[in-house]
Design a protein that fits this description.
Blueprint lengths: L3 H23 L17 E2 L3 E9 L6 E9 L14 E8 L2 E5 L2 E5 L4 E4 L6 E4 L5 E9 L8
Length: 148
């Protein structure tokens, strides 16, 4: 049997959930469903190859979601080994790369997927004879709720 307290707690929780949804839907600049052709982003030259930047925006559940594609010239690295708080996925489209994962270099080809965890040292370099292209998906989540 439901008590008056149960009903009040349930209504408070439901109200809080509705407020969160309303805030997410009305947050300015929030990214909604979209589709992007490969050619939708210009291929901009860089010192090590080129880059196509598609989006970098907050979503309903993330502080930021970013996607770009990088093409590295043979023998070059995107940047020195580094770390950052956001997490990212790297998906190799074409070419042969080496990825620094858990302190070891791993040789990978087309179709490989690399997960770079938050604040862990990582890097990527083209070890092939042809350009290497890969997709990068970065996200920044709100900090986890403190546990009691």
């Amino acid at each position: 049997m439901l008590t008056q307290k149960d009903v009040v707690v349930a209504l408070a929780g439901f109200s809080a959930a509705l407020c969160m949804v309303a805030m997410a839907e009305t947050r300015p600049g929030i990214m909604h469903s979209a589709a992007f052709a490969w050619t939708a982003a210009p291929d901009k030259p860089t010192d090590v190859g080129s880059r196509r930047s598609y989006f970098k925006a907050p979503t309903a559940t993330l502080n930021e979601l970013e996607y770009h594609a990088t093409t590295l010239k043979p023998g070059l690295a995107s940047h020195p080994p580094h770390r950052h708080p956001n997490e990212e996925l790297v998906i190799v489209k074409e070419g042969t790369v080496e990825a620094l994962v858990n302190g070891k270099w791993e040789r990978l080809g087309a179709g490989a997927v690399i997960f770079n965890a938050s604040n862990e040292l990582h890097a990527l370099r083209n070890v092939g004879d042809t350009p290497a292209t890969y997709h990068v998906i970065n996200w920044q989540s709100p900090p986890p709720a403190a546990t009691k």
